[in-house]
Design brief:
Chain lengths: 117, 105
């Protein structure tokens, strides 16, 4: 059974940093592109970052490019999201998701990030 | 590509045939998926590539469409289908629709 479990969320002040983690199990992690998708409170979904199977290629939307860094450790079946220079508009639930082709086929339960002073 | 979902809120009765719409601002070339999100839960993939049913999803869910217009149909609404449904296009960039909230009448 595919399982994705995020951790690392919490309350952080604007301008500070936070690192999210996602532990994967139930599939061969190194065979899949992985992604982070976020959802602001009572809002829609927004893709945040994608990483290739080896980690050599990463992709971001303009809203987080230069501030967020996605990475992975295939030996640990783990995905990470380093978030720097956080803004109030980054407040959201962050989901780790497995990519199959260009869409997301499995999602974790999410971890909440609140950016506030 | 912008996605417009309609209606934003839909009330229906158990057993009804329900149709949700997703319209793109440009041709999506069938690269469209549908997700179901129940309150407090992560999204669940229902349909990918316009009409391919994800493994384990009941056959009462189906997808159709082409070009800019796409539809998710629930053939016979069940109580457990109460959720918000999002469409997602991956033809040009990545865009989610704002969602249709489906409730029981």
């Amino acid at each position: 059974e595919v399982q994705l479990v995020e951790s690392g969320g919490g309350l952080v002040q604007p301008g500070r940093s936070l690192k999210l983690s996602c532990a994967a199990s139930g599939f061969t992690f190194s065979n899949y592109y992985m992604a982070w998708v976020r959802q602001a409170p009572k809002k829609g979904l927004e893709w945040v970052a994608t990483i290739s199977t080896s980690g050599s290629r990463t992709y971001y939307p303009d809203s987080v490019k230069g501030r967020f860094t996605i990475s992975r450790d295939n030996a640990k079946s783990s995905l990470y999201l380093q978030m720097n220079s956080l803004k109030s508009e980054d407040t959201a639930t962050y989901y780790c998701a497995r990519q199959r082709g260009r869409y997301f086929d499995f999602w974790g339960p999410g971890t909440m990030v609140t950016v506030s002073s | 590509i912008q996605l417009t979902q309609s209606p934003s809120l839909l009330s229906a009765s158990v057993g009804d045939r329900v149709t949700l719409s997703c319209k793109g601002s440009q041709n999506i070339n069938n690269y469209l998926a549908w997700y179901q999100q129940k309150l407090g839960e992560a999204p669940k993939l229902l349909i990918y590539n316009t009409n391919s049913l994800q493994t384990g999803i009941p056959s009462r869910f189906s997808g159709s469409g082409s070009g800019t217009d796409y539809t998710l149909t629930i053939s016979s609404l069940q109580p457990e289908d109460v959720a918000t449904y999002f469409c997602y296009q991956y033809n040009n960039g990545d865009t989610f629709g704002a969602g249709t909230k489906l409730e029981l009448k």
